Amino acid sequence: MFEKRFTAIAKKWLSVWCGLAIAFGLVFVLLSGALAQEKEKVSTAPEELTDVQKVSFPAIPLRKPGEEETGDKEWFGTDLPWWEWSRMTGNWGGARKSMEDAGVAIEGAAIFDVSRVASGGIRRRWIARSLLDFQAALDLKKLLNFELGTLAARYYSFFGRDASRDAGDIQAFDNLDANRQRHQLAELWYEQKFFNESLRLKVGKVDTNSEFAFTENGAEFNHSSMGFSPTLIGFSSYPDPAMSVNLFVYPTDDLYVGFGAYDGAAQRGYETGPRGPGTFFRGLNKLMYVGELGGKWVVAQLPGRLALGGWYHNGTFDRFDGTRKSGTGGWYMVFDQMVWRPDGAKEEDKKGVGLFLQYGNAQPAVSEIQHHVGGGFSWTGPIPDREEDVFGWGTTWSRLSSARGAGFAKKHELAIETFYKIKVTGWFSLKPDLQYIINPSGARGVKNAVVPTLRFEWQF
């Protein structure tokens, strides 16, 4: 049972945070109505702008050239207002669209989080951190008029400190956090498709979560464990992508099998994010292998997806009992399902309610987290005329290792998250987020934590 104090604290902070979200929502509902009326008076933006372009966020796959196009009117001197552009820097006077048509895509995003442990945890102070995220992709087939694939690069610049040090949690409540300041070429890879796109090869420095164990309907959550299970030891995701070889086979349009081999140097304390491929080639017996079988379907215009995966790391691990173990592994499951869409919605329309569930396990002798269960829903367009706003609620539960020497005073950690993302303009959004963390890190003396966060996102 939850403590009485939690009830009082939760009521207080939930009412304050929900009040802020509702207030922001009402303000922008009114603004959107006014802007809609104003827009009717002027020429309408091209059809491409109806699906506002989304710059990839940490742990979200990179958009490739040609997937979306920038509207011709997204520049100064046209009848399309600046706040309706899909990206803050617009079409660069037509140069950006010309580059994309030729096979060159350049994206940018800035994310700024402000958090405070309002109750419980270890420390109560304001925590600010930011991320600059720049991406470039070259469609070599368009550029060179030859049957080649895509070459892509991604650069991170992170400022701030790890907020989990204040909250005391083990699952990492904010997916923007890193252990220190980072300025790095985070990804650099080449992708080639063969046999009418039934075979895909991707080689280079890759974020594993862009290929494996991702949740589509959990992508908007701040909590790290909503994106992938924390039981995956050595998982080379933000802020530490790693050198890898990935191979995917697509027997049908709705079925795939994927395999990846990733640099396992993180297990030995190396930060793979700022590193090149050196540790991958020097430690061929220290790799993390991932395999995944997945299928997708559409029933009554409601898409769904199920993925089952397994992983194995052949490095040497310290066991909680003081001995060492060679190799460890586990498995995971991810389920996404859209459960409601408005009548007449197009197949590519994101408006609706989507659920996600995930499970993961690892060996308790070497992993701090033995079992993980998570799930929730995201509702895109919850308010009329606010079709790009997103409301979400989710929970993530981790069973901590019970192995001798693990040292956990409590058996589990549970985090509950809710947020409301407000699409202020085509290129700027504001997201109030509230989390309640029960048994942070399973540590004795660390009280349940209430952590509100305000996230700002800009798309260039």
Topology:
Elements: H1 4-41, H2 95-102, E1 104-116, E2 119-121, E3 126-139, H3 140-144, E4 150-159, H4 164-167, E5 182-194, E6 199-206, E7 242-252, E8 255-263, H5 278-282, E9 287-299, E10 302-318, E11 324-340, E12 352-362, E13 369-380, E14 390-400, E15 412-423, E16 428-438, E17 447-459
Antiparallel strand pairs: 1-3, 1-17, 2-17, 3-4, 4-5, 5-6, 6-7, 7-8, 8-9, 9-10, 10-11, 11-12, 12-13, 13-14, 14-15, 15-16, 16-17
Description:
With 460 residues, this protein is mostly beta strands. A hairpin with a 6-residue loop joins strand 12 and strand 13. The protein has a 16-stranded antiparallel beta barrel. The protein has a single domain, classed as Carbohydrate-selective porin OprB (Porin, Beta Barrel). It is globular.
The main β sheet shows up as: 16 strands, antiparallel, barrel
Termini gap: 47 Å
Helical proportion, percent range: 10-25%
Q: Predict the CATH topology.
A: Porin
> What's the gyration radius in Å?
22 Å
CATH H level: which superfamily? Carbohydrate-selective porin OprB
Query: Which ranges are low-confidence, i.e. pLDDT below 50, for 5 or more consecutive residues?
Result: 1-63, 65-70
Q: pLDDT average, as an integer?
A: 85
What percent of residues are in strands?
Answer: 35-45%
Q: How are helices and strands ordered from N to C? A: HHEEEHEHEEEEHEEEEEEEEE
Class based on secondary structure composition and strand pairing: mainly beta
Question: Count of helices?
Answer: 5
CATH class term: Mainly Beta
The 3D shape can be described as globular
Overall structural domain count: 1
The number of distinct β-strands equals 17
Strand line-up across the major sheet: 1-3-4-5-6-7-8-9-10-11-12-13-14-15-16-17
CATH architecture: Beta Barrel
